[in-house]
Inverse folding.
């Protein structure tokens, strides 16, 4: 069995999930608590990866990250390399594909927080940022963990987007799901079974974790 593919998947999931939580937490809070004209356009844009086929999203990212594009040229200027067919490239692709899977649980967690707590914090002199950092985040702890776990599991199973942007370079961009596909194509069913079993166990443990967290009361409800 190709343990390096499993390692790449885990590494990809950990890094992408950490970055997504940093980006999605303030964005989710903003979408829940700030009203502005055209808000539903932004919400729809964020949710596009939920309905767009991964290969189509991967194709768009392939064009956007190509050396001929502005982001591609900027990345080449900063690093001297290309985003395509690199580990950094599949991190960007995985984040783009998994953003709504991180935002939805976070939005639910922030919506459950009693608005009177946030209002009281602002009355006592907290800025909107301090209310988010000191009040909203601690009270949404279960939702943040659930979002992280779900995002991690989703990225562990990435296939179409990663294949389009990163290809299948052993030790670099060949993740577990791609390895399973290649094993099946080569009729190497034993390796496919072992790797698929590892992913199945990971997915089951993730679901157990999420179900446990959903059954726990939020800090302000305890």
């Amino acid at each position: 069995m190709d343990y390096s593919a499993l390692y790449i998947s885990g590494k990809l999931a950990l890094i992408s999930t950490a970055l997504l939580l940093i980006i999605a937490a303030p964005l989710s809070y903003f979408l829940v608590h700030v009203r502005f004209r055209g808000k539903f356009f932004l919400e729809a844009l964020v949710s596009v990866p939920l309905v767009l086929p991964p290969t189509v999203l991967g194709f768009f990212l392939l064009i956007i990250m190509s050396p001929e594009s502005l982001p591609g040229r900027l990345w080449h200027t900063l690093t001297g390399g290309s985003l395509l067919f690199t580990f950094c490239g599949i991190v960007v692709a995985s984040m783009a594909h998994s953003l709504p899977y991180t935002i939805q649980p976070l939005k639910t967690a922030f919506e459950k927080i009693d608005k009177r707590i946030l209002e009281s914090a602002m009355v006592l002199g907290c800025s909107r940022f301090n209310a988010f950092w000191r009040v909203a985040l601690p009270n949404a702890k279960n939702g943040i963990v659930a979002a992280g776990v779900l995002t991690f599991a989703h990225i562990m199973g990435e296939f179409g987007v990663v294949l389009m942007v990163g290809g299948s370079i052993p030790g670099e961009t060949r993740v577990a799901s791609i390895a399973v596909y290649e094993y099946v194509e080569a009729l190497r069913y034993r390796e496919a079974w072992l790797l698929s079993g590892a992913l199945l166990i990971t997915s089951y443990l993730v679901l157990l974790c999420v179900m446990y967290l959903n059954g726990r009361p939020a800090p302000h409800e305890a």
